[in-house]
Amino acid sequence: MELHSQLSRPVRSGPVLLALCGASFLAGLDLFVVNVAFDEIGADFTGHSLADLSWILNGYAILYAALLIPLGRWADKVGRRRGFLLGLGLFVAASAACALAPNLWSLIGFRAAQAIGAALLTPASLALILTVLPAERRSASVRIWATAGAIAAAAGPVIGGVLVAASWRWVFLINVPIGIAFLVLAARSIPESRDRDADHPDVLAAALLTVAVGALALALVEGPDWGWSSVGVLGALGVSLVSGAAFWIRNGRGGAPILDPAMLRVRSFAWSNAAMLLFSAGFAAALLATILWMQTVWGYSATRTGMAIAPGPLMVPVFAIVAQRLASRVDAGRIAALGCLLWGGGAVLMAASVGPEPAYATQILPGWLIAGVGVGLALPTILATATAGLPQDRAATGSAVVSMHRQIGAVIGISALVAILGTPIGFESTRTAFTHSWWAVAAVSALAAAAALGITARTSPPERSAPATEPAEVLR
Asked: Where in the sequence is the domain holding 177, given as residue range(s)?
């Protein structure tokens, strides 16, 4: 491995960490910031259903998930700094294009370009933290990087609500000046780092994974309109199954698999990925359902919706700190499982409380606060624990795999929500559809809690070195 620029100038940890975590925060924010803009975008681009609008989220998440690892490997080989700057530059340019999109499908296309940039900058940012920062700063820096991602996911609707007050286009336009500032800071402060022996990315495997997840999402979101036994839906499910099987075959035979089977034999890593997939499905579905209820049933504006969502995200950093302190005494899996159950419990409380007349303080807020506590306990814990048992040279790849499962879970959750909601007529039909969606979230969250109990590693520093020996043997 070569660290060219470190030979000529010292690394200033503060600017490096700000640029890397800040850009990663922007990429994570864009996964959820557009939730509250759905009504405004739909009003601007008339004639489109909720299923059509869902591709603004799903198209981004599918490409982001499929390309994280291949583009991360490509950055390892050609230069992580170069990959990070290229990814951030593409993300910024695509954000500007989204803000100027003349119709829905061009917006979805520009969102796809955003996703490619995000999928390049995200693994490159973590790899740079692990290679260019001083060894004594890396562990704390990785925790900051992971927490920034969790806060971005939770705060997206709040920030989106404020921006949509001006125009939904500001949801994307705001990325441009901030992204340019991070570009300049990164270019000035981050040295180059590369691994010339890194494997070439498996483009075919990435394509197969994209088709498999995309076809599944298509079948789910179009099922209510096309009919669950229609040729279109059955064909999409067939394409998803065939592409998924082809992906696993290719993944097992390729020299540089996207999902390394050996890594899945590390208990904490395997169960963290399972928990992340399930939790993210429930998280994305409940978040969008709550926003849609307030906007479409109660008639809340985007700004009011964002403010109503805010108390939940405020719980995230507070209870992320609580989770970190508990980790020295309580098994990380139990902390994550409790968080998953609280998220599901919050969804159930909202399902049992909501009525036709807006009563936010009694019908939404209690459940939403409980759900926010759950996110603070579950999400940072799963992210931090996933790579705790991996050797250091696999940490960046392991984190990308967890992020991939996070995005795939979000796609499944949003697609399932669209399928459950359908096009209800009248309040009682609408309430029944939303209630079913919140109860589905609770069921998935319970499964996520069960998966989280399989995690045995702890996240506190004294405990992290102990489990590394066995996984290192597995991965040799």
From this structure: 8-198
